[in-house]
Amino acid sequence: MSEAKDSKARYRSFPKVDFSRASETDPELIYYKLFTKQNPDNCIPLTHENVEQLDVDKTVKTVWLIHGWTSSDTTPWYEPLKDAYLDLGHNVIYVNWTKYGNLSYGMSSANVKPVGEIISIFLSKSGIPADKIHLVGHSLGSHLAAFIGKSYQSKFGEKIGRITALDPAGPLWSHKDMTKQEKLCELDAHFVDVIHTDIQVYGYTHPCGHIDFYPNGGTNQPGCTDPNNIESSNHYCAPKFFIESIYSQVPATEIDFQEDAGYNIIITHKEKPAHITFGEHVDSKSTGIYYFETHSSRPFLKTVNLKINDDQDS
User: GO molecular function: any one (predicted)?
Assistant: First the structure.
């Protein structure tokens, strides 16, 4: 096997997630902060005790932001995404599961199952209608969002409205024996959209949602390739692209996506492709795999009607 093929196959060499490694979990060690249009900067801490008296407009969407491994609610993408959603009139809740997400990668991966169950109960206690719940997770947080959705459906008999997965984690999760019940998939919400920006490295490679986007082919994102700064890497481009999409209309083109025996990704444009809008404003009735290209600096998206502020830190 050539060195290039070895490198591309490395993400396949990890074992599958061992859910038996999960920590004992305490619901009081998972934290939530509510922001609304009326309280854009001063959060309202939520607990299992006060969430049942949650006083927000439940006719609008509530977006739950879920960080990945070795991160927290101070991750750089939370605030600009929160501000963008508040501009749309939505409610935003920061989820902080750092107590269980900042352990070894294997343990943190296993923890998404029990933590997902705890958060699903919290969602139910909030009284927010299932169809008004939108979970946005990055990396390992994408699989946590999936397990929130799985648990919510199992316990309460309903699917949540939407999961947006920002470059879902690949290592351990890409093992051939991992089933849909054990990882992010299109069954976890009424609508699951996935953005792949670091395939075959930190990100999950294959399509796994109702709609999967592969900007620039899913790897080597222009302007996001600093090997010395993980938050400037391909893996962190997905949140940046998604934040910009809230203010824009970004066209994406339908493709065929394959990985050959040499682990090479082959993207083929269809003869008569569908065209849809990328990101927040995607048509939730659409399905398929889509491609678009980006600029190498902010604004990254090649859009119309863009009004992102240049000083936003995503």
Answer: serine hydrolase activity
